[in-house]
Automatic annotation (TrEMBL):
UniProt keyword annotations, A-Z: NADP, Oxidoreductase, Riboflavin biosynthesis
GO annotation, biological process: riboflavin biosynthetic process
Gene Ontology terms, MF aspect: 5-amino-6-(5-phosphoribosylamino)uracil reductase activity
Protein name, UniProt field: 2,5-diamino-6-ribosylamino-4(3H)-pyrimidinone 5'-phosphate reductase
Pfam families in alphabetical order: RibD_C
Cited PANTHER family: 2,5-DIAMINO-6-RIBOSYLAMINO-4(3H)-PYRIMIDINONE 5'-PHOSPHATE REDUCTASE, DIHYDROFOLATE REDUCTASE FAMILY PROTEIN (AFU_ORTHOLOGUE AFUA_8G06820)
Family named by the database record: Belongs to the HTP reductase family.
Biological role stated in the UniProt entry: Catalyzes an early step in riboflavin biosynthesis, the NADPH-dependent reduction of the ribose side chain of 2,5-diamino-6-ribosylamino-4(3H)-pyrimidinone 5'-phosphate, yielding 2,5-diamino-6-ribitylamino-4(3H)-pyrimidinone 5'-phosphate.
Species in which this protein is naturally found: Rhodotorula graminis (strain WP1)
Amino acid sequence: MQFNDPRPTGGPPVPALALLAAVYPPHLSDLPTPPSTPVRPARPFVTLTYAQSLDGKIAGPGGTQLQLSGPESMRLTHHLRVLHDSILVGVGTVLNDDPQLTARLPSLLPLSQQPRPVILDSSLRTPPTCKLLVNAQRGISHGVTIVHRALSATSEEDEDLRRRAADLERAGARLIPLEPDEHGLLPLSALLSHPHASHLLGRSLMVEGGARIIASCLAAPPPGIVDLVIVTVAPVLVGEDGVSAVAPRKAGQGAPPRLEHVRTELFGQDSVVVVRPVYEGVEGEGGAA
């Protein structure tokens, strides 16, 4: 998608747009794609982004939703949504926050500037009445893709899940089954290499969490699946009962990559830190520093 610049002609630069222009490859923001543009990568450009407190929490006790981002950094989040073709969250975020994942600057932008929502939901716990599906039915956001564990067509164990799948399809969801990895998790790498990934995800995917997905993204083996990490740090303390930004690694999961600093800027009272995962011996695409 294109950067959405709401300023009047000749007005001062918008800080969010200046940051995005500095850290993202040009081909992600230029539409239509010029004929001379190189062939797009085999998988989408992936941004992992989330807001956390000073003590590293993204939610309150029991996953209670917190408003961590101030208005300035929240505006950056909405510009990021405009920039990306698709946006992914885990089912825990859907159940706890019932998000809309729409781009609003400050009002709702047209459907053509909205990212396509994707939910990672191994057990199909997404409510058919959630805002993401309702918004798609109303035509103000794109249809929802739900990625889930592959189901047996005959197993009694999966009978309830097959009913849930039918309910979600009636609500308009597109279901994509994946085989879980050895830890019982849905591998994001399999989604990115799915035969329909280009159609489902476009050329850029924004991952907004929660904690398990953040950990999974950062623990992916080389060459990794994340191209850029953008973390908003709010000047608040949540306490030890809050949900940590990165869930503990499961046995056998890889260690996180080295992070290369790209940029740090203040948005209001929040610090926005941009880093690039680096895997030794792997040459990444990366953006401009």
